[in-house]
Specification:
Helices cover 68% and strands 4% of the residues. The protein is mainly alpha-helical and 165 residues long. It has a two-stranded antiparallel ribbon with strand order 1-2.
Length: 165
């Protein structure tokens, strides 16, 4: 970020309050992601449902605030990527520098948590699909299990359902 860009950022009066609001929303979003993670681990579908609606609401607010910040930056021929660049100008006030660093850190943490939750959901989905195939008697792909000697061996496909109602 150049000195001119830093000076232009300081001309935007609403920006410090918008960044503070952005930080609050990201903190709330991070808490929602942590709650989602706990619900996934404990198989709490009610909590998952509640968390999903909270995440959607927060996501919408974050999106709206991001657009508002981008509009403010555009008035000074700046972009959000300039504001959130890894090279924060020392010409910015110290509190703004700290808030931008915190914003970057929180964004990365939320990204990582959201990605981990997505992977957990995909794994649970795969397990459920496999279980349904076994219960319905559909042929499942060859799965290699460990035998008594510690070596993998392919399972014999079964076409019989486990039970009949």
């Amino acid at each position: 970020m150049t000195q001119d860009q830093a000076n232009n950022i300081q001309k935007i009066e609403e920006l410090p309050s918008q960044i503070a609001q952005f930080l609050q929303l990201l903190e709330s979003f991070k808490e929602a992601l942590l709650s989602e993670s706990q619900a996934l681990k404990s198989n709490n579908t009610e909590q998952l449902s509640t968390t999903l609606s909270v995440k959607n609401e927060l996501s919408e607010k974050i999106s709206q605030l991001t657009q508002a910040i981008e509009q403010q930056l555009n008035t000074q021929q700046l972009t959000l990527s300039v504001l959130l660049s890894s090279e924060i100008s020392p010409d910015l006030p110290q509190t703004m520098q700290q808030n931008i660093q915190r914003l970057i850190l929180l964004s990365n943490q939320c990204h990582d948590l959201n990605q981990a939750n997505g992977i957990s959901i995909q794994i649970l989905n795969n397990i459920n699909q496999h279980t349904l195939k076994i219960l319905s008697g559909q042929e499942s792909p060859n799965i290699k299990l460990y035998g008594a000697r510690g070596k993998t061996q392919a399972t014999k496909p079964t076409k019989n359902p486990l039970g009949k109602a």
